[in-house]
Each structure stands twice: as C-alpha cells, then as structure tokens.
C-alpha cells in the first residue's frame, strides 16, 4: 500500500471523478484507502463527486472520528471500517451507486460471468437489506456478506468492491458495471452464455495482474476532461 498520503488523496480524487464520469458513482458514493494505525482516508459526505479536490478527502479512525480535515465523513463510513476490521488483506474500499448492476439486485437477478472481465469478480453475494449502512452493526453484516470476496451488491442500493489497493477496487467496480450492462443487453437478444468454472479460473489468472488492472485505470484517466 502507498504510504504517501498526498498521493493516496489524489488517487482517491481521481478514482471518484472517473467513476462519476462513468456513471458508477453519483451524488453519493465513497472511496477509501487504509492508513496505518487503524485509520483511513475517505471523501467527505458533502463532497461534490463531480468536482472533487484533495480538500474533500479526510482522515478518520475506524469509529468515524476525524483525524485530519474538518469535514464530516460519509454516514456510511461503517462499510469501510468493518471491511477493514474483518479483512487485513484489503487496503481500499469503494461503495458505488451503479445503474446497471443495481437493476439486477432490484430484480433479484444475479450478475453472472458473461464476459471475460467478470472472471475476476468471483462470487457476487447480495446484501439483502435495503438500507443505508449507517451503523456499526449493519457494517458488520455487510462485511460478513462480502466474506473473503471482492465484490458484493446491496439490494436496490448499490455495490461494494474491496481490493488490495485503490486501482484494484476501482477496476472491480468498473468490471461489475460493465458486466451487468452487457448481460442485460445480451439478454434482450436471447439466452446468455455463461463462462464455466474452468474458463473463469483460467481467465481470472490471466487478467488479475497489476499491469492489466492499471491499463483500465489509465484508460479512464485519459478520458478526464
């Protein structure tokens, strides 16, 4: 994990801005990066996701107490805190409000590995409660729902992606939404072919590489206005 707080702040700003432009984060949504000492960087609750600056990033502890900055953190910081508490392998968490994949959770339909990029998502559980995750108890339930996975959907609400760094979490959020959109569009034409277990395992090994994940980040970074 990067230890340069300034670089991490800028990466969070870039990640949120790119996701907003891609329609994966709207006027809500938040992205965090773990810091040493049970702390995290996260965008403030009032931050304008379409006009982010490093001043919108605050540092808090796992109980939501401000460590750096003077803006109030998002009320759903519990999502991030409880995943970090449960998962020492996770150093970045994003809570998105995606259009396509949220349709699937609203309709109780699974997002399936129908494109190659979906192979890295793993099993995608759905958190069954339609609610803001604004208490420690709800955050714990969501973290348990995610388990050791990379992605979870929140019924009629959004999604969560957890990675070892900001780039991983960003790419997982992008891949989930791309998969859902293409699955939905293909289903209008007829039955959709789903990758089998052997294909998923082989493709995941090939695609889950730092240089290929960075390629996705660089593509979206290059589209910034």
UniProtKB/TrEMBL annotation:
Biological process per Gene Ontology, one example term: pentose catabolic process
Statement: the UniProt record of this protein carries the keyword Lyase: yes
UniProt entry tagged with the keyword Plastid: no
Domain Class II aldolase/adducin N-terminal: from-to ranges: 10-184
Coiled coil: none
Any one GO molecular-function label of the UniProt entry: aldehyde-lyase activity
Keywords for this protein: Lyase, Metal-binding
Domain of life: Bacteria
Pfam family, one: Aldolase_II
A cellular component term, taken from the record's GO annotations: cytosol
PANTHER family: 3-OXO-TETRONATE 4-PHOSPHATE DECARBOXYLASE-RELATED, FUCULOSE PHOSPHATE ALDOLASE
Protein name in the entry: L-fuculose-phosphate aldolase
Organism: Pusillimonas noertemannii
């Amino acid at each position: 994990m990067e230890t340069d707080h300034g670089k991490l702040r800028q990466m969070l700003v870039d990640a949120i801005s790119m996701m907003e432009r891609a329609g994966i984060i709207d006027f809500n949504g938040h992205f965090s990066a773990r810091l040493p000492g049970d702390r995290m960087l996260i965008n403030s609750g009032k931050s304008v996701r379409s006009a982010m600056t490093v001043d919108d990033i605050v540092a808090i502890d796992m109980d939501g107490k401000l460590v750096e900055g003077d803006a109030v953190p998002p009320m759903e910081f519990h999502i991030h805190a409880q995943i970090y508490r449960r998962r020492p392998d996770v150093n970045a968490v994003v809570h998105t409000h995606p259009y396509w994949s949220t349709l699937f959770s609203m309709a109780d339909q699974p997002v399936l590995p129908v494109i190659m990029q979906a192979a890295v998502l793993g099993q995608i559980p759905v958190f069954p409660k339609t609610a803001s995750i604004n208490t420690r108890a709800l955050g714990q339930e969501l973290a348990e729902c995610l388990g050791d996975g990379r992605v979870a959907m929140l019924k009629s609400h959004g999604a969560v992606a957890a990675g070892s760094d900001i780039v991983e979490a960003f790419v997982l959020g992008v891949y989930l939404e791309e998969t859902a959109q293409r699955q939905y569009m293909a289903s209008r034409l007829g039955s959709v072919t789903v990758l089998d277990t052997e294909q998923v395992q082989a493709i995941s090994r090939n695609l889950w590489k730092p240089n290929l994940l960075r390629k996705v980040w660089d593509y979206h970074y290059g589209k910034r206005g």
